[in-house]
């Protein structure tokens, strides 16, 4: 199943919140992204159906192995693109972070692999 940009953003957010807080609930994602709880609930249903997350009775959201793999890939892209924009183009952290958030979803694997080679 192909995951859309918004789904990738949710997975990345879940990963970061999990690292920061240990456990994640829909309200945490809503607060982090500034979305309504209803929007988050719908998105979590889609991610659950695609087997990227599990949702416990108490509302805790956990990345599955598949979800963790995808979220980690997205986060790796985000951090490397941010670093590239800051180091090579000398843009501010805020601009680099915002641009990376958009670029990470459309950058080809070939270009990303070449970028990774620069930082080895």
From TrEMBL:
Instruction: Identify the Pfam families for this entry.
Output: Fe_dep_repr_C, Fe_dep_repress
- Report keywords, A-Z: DNA-binding, Transcription, Transcription regulation
Extract the GO molecular function terms from the UniProt entry: DNA binding; DNA-binding transcription factor activity; protein dimerization activity; transition metal ion binding
Entry annotated with the keyword Transcription: yes
HTH dtxR-type domain mapped to chain residues: 1-64
Q: Which SUPFAM superfamilies match?
A: Iron-dependent repressor protein, dimerization domain, Winged helix' DNA-binding domain
Extract the InterPro entries matched here.
DtxR_MntR_Metal-Reg (IPR050536), Fe_dep_repressor (IPR001367), Fe_dep_repressor_sf (IPR036421), HTH_DTXR (IPR022687), Iron_dep_repressor (IPR022689), WH-like_DNA-bd_sf (IPR036388), WH_DNA-bd_sf (IPR036390)
Q: Report whether Transcription regulation shows up as a keyword of the record.
A: yes
Taxonomically, the superkingdom here is: Bacteria
Q: Which family does it belong to?
A: Belongs to the DtxR/MntR family.
Name of the protein in question: DtxR family transcriptional regulator
Source organism of this protein record = Clostridium sulfidigenes
């Amino acid at each position: 199943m192909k995951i859309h940009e918004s789904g990738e953003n949710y997975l990345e957010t879940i990963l970061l919140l999990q690292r920061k807080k240990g456990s994640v609930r829909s309200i945490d994602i809503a607060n982090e992204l500034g979305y309504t709880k209803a929007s988050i609930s719908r998105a979590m249903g889609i991610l659950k159906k695609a087997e990227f997350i599990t949702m416990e009775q108490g509302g805790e959201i956990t990345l599955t192995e598949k979800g963790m793999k995808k979220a980690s890939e997205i986060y790796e892209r985000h951090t490397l693109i941010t670093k590239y924009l800051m180091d090579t183009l000398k843009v501010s952290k805020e601009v680099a972070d915002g641009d990376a958030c958009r670029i990470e979803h459309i950058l080809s694997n070939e270009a990303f692999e070449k970028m990774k080679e620069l930082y080895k």
